[in-house]
Amino acid sequence: MTLTPSPTAVPEGTVFITGGAGRIGTDLRARLAALGYQVRFADIRPPADGNLDGFYQLDLADQDGMAAAMAGCRALVHLGGHPREADWETIEALNFTGAYNALMAARRAGISTVIYASSNHYGGLHPADTVLAADLAPHPTGLYGASKVFGESLLRAECAAFPVIGFAWRICAYKPEPVNARDLRMWCSPDDAARLVDRCLRWTGPGFQVIWGVSGNTRTIKNDPAAERIGYRPQDDAEQWIGRLRAAGIDTARVSEWSCLGGEKAADWLAQRRPGA
Question: Where does the record place the NAD-dependent epimerase/dehydratase domain (predicted)?
Fold first, then answer.
């Protein structure tokens, strides 16, 4: 972790994270705390890191419990849900109904800023070289991607009806370091993810915005006005890992190993639905 706290104090108020015991949630909790934020978090099971400070054991089905746990918080980062493709029952309960319950709990608790963890799989079936743009048409990877289209739309509707500051955070290839050619465009480091969330939490203008969760990769091509507007300046670049990738036999001249923006998950989804699969 190489975060440098901003010279200006973090905004007052507690940040609530759903899915805070998960992979991204655990990283984000530690980094936001290091930046000076007060954090509460919820998950269906206790965190593996053993840090129970501010922890609420809650299911996304429990809207009342979430609203009570969020009381007094000013911001929600909704990371909760199922993180990959699954059957309809799982995706419907955790990603559709779960997102609805989290946003309604936030409304009931009087939360003013909502950062919804969307995904590049919102448009995962676009070609691999697609520009990462705020107005990218939805072309979701399976049920998982469709749930992110729904979550973004729900937050957009919430921001239209109430003075909510809303961000659809389209998380790309989030991992400690890039491992394939696709990551040279799509990688997002844990530190840059925290920098992005920090800038979203400092923004004060109500309304809905899309922001792409990518690092400052040399090869990333994006049209991301929200990042410019809120001052998100990523500091990591996948290119610094290119020697290691080449040594591992990765063809770093390729845009991606897969034809679609969503990479392996998109390829798997399409393969399952071809005749004879």
Answer: 15-162
